[in-house]
Amino acid sequence: MKYEKILIRFGELSLKGNNKMTFVRKLASNISKICNVDLKHIDIMIDRIFIPYSIENLNNLNYVFGISSYSPVFQLNSNLDEIEKLIQKIDFAPHKNFKINSRRKWKDFPLSSLDLNIHLGNFVLKNNKHLTVKVKDPDIEVNIEIHKNFSYIFWEKIKGLGGLPVGVSGKTIHLLSGGIDSPVAALEMIKRGVQVDFLAFISPPHTDETTIKKLKLIVDLITKYQIKSTLYLFNYTEIMNYIGLTSNQKYKIVLMRRSFYRIASSIALKTHCLGISNGENLAQVASQTMEAIHVIHNQSLLPVYQPLLTLDKIEIISKSEKFNLFPISTIKACETCELFAPNHPATKPSIDVAQALEEELDLLQGLEEKAINNNIERLFFKINSKIDIK
Fold first, then answer.
1. First to last CA, the chain
2. Angle separating helix axes 351-360 and 290-297, nearest 10 degrees
């Protein structure tokens, strides 16, 4: 017995109405790139996609958003004798009960789905006297799909990542730190079909090479899920030092993060992004209270998306481990926000105070504009490409 293909299901896409096939074709394109399978070898149906079977393809589907589940399948002619011969080869010995689940997609097949269930159920019982039929939660559920040209038999169902195909929902600039939250938030955005570009603020010489390597490793891993990524490394040292001169030290982080959103907005508009996303988690730190978020986001020219806003830390860590991000995110590094944090940051800042402090720092806007033009290094990541991470 030899698997021929992998059957791919896409539950949420079935709700897309007249736009469904646009989403399905995008999913097929993403599968082609992530699994490195030529599109001409991918069969697209109204509620199914089939790709050639291989262990490598089976493993790579773990990185494809937009899939509800998938199964390695046996392919055979839509002929009852051939179906019986293949079912006869299934090893039912380890199981106490079973279920036959048929779907007759080709209506000219001589048996209806119900009749085929009964016929094949009796066929299995005849050859396996120890078995009983169990409709709910059987030890093994044998699925048969009858199509015009071929039929497919399978009993393994692997849970997919769900969500939407990457690229169907526009693009964001994602504020990336080397911590646990922001990489997970990026993948949550990608799960909803968003293409994510990354913006990281570094402050050499305080930001060491380990920190930059860590950022590259994070983006390289996330690229496996979204095919291509851009990382903007923004040298923030001069601006950070200037904001450090503020007359109200409690507002340093607030002023710095307001600056982040002005810069992110400028980059986003130039690169046709439709929003800014981040890993903010409500009330986790001083800059993420409702008051602080209100004051900081006031500077964004685009919507700000916060997919982790209401999750607790245990939930976020669980997601980080699921996506294999946790070992990278816990590498010790020097991050700009941590270096700059005052001992007693403002937890309930006001826009009026923040604006007054920015007026005192009258060179701030000019420094930001200068840095946007001169202090950004762009790094490009592509799936299945070797990235030089030094």
1. 46
2. 50
Residue spans per domain, the chain: 5-162, 171-382
Beta bridge partners of 150: 77
Give backbone dihedrals phi and psi of 99, rounded to 5 degrees, phi first.
-145, 140
- Where does the chain have alpha helices with state H? 20-35, 55-60, 80-88, 113-127, 181-191, 209-226, 237-243, 252-270, 290-297, 313-322, 326-329, 336-340, 351-360, 364-374
pLDDT in tens, the chain (390 residues): 789 999 999 877 766 677 888 999 999 999 999 999 999 999 998 888 999 999 999 999 999 999 999 999 999 999 999 999 999 999 999 999 999 999 999 999 999 999 999 999 999 999 999 999 999 999 999 999 999 889 999 999 999 999 999 999 999 999 998 889 999 999 999 999 999 999 999 999 888 888 999 999 999 999 999 999 999 999 999 999 999 999 999 999 999 999 999 999 999 999 999 999 999 999 887 788 999 999 999 999 999 999 999 999 999 999 999 999 999 999 887 765 666 677 788 889 999 999 999 999 999 999 999 999 999 999 999 998 766 655
Nearest to 199 by CA among 289, 302, 283: 302
Please give the distance of CA 360 from its chain centroid, rounded to a whole number: 42
Q: In this structure, which CATH number among 3.40.50.620, 3.40.50.300, 3.30.1330.120, 3.30.2130.30 belongs to the domain 5-162?
A: 3.30.2130.30
Q: What region does 331 belong to: left with phi over 0, alpha with psi -120 to 50, or beta? A: beta
64: Cα within 13 Å, side-chain hemisphere: 29
User: In a 3-state reduction of DSSP, which class is residue 260?
Assistant: helix
> Residues near 19 by Cβ (< 8 Å), separated by ≥ 6?
none
CA 160 – CA 207 distance, rounded (Å) = 38
Helix orientation angle between 364-374 and 252-270, rounded to the nearest 10 degrees: 40
In what helix (H) or strand (E) does residue 144 lie, and over which residues does it extend?
strand 140-146
| CATH fold of the domain at 171-382 | Rossmann fold (3.40.50)
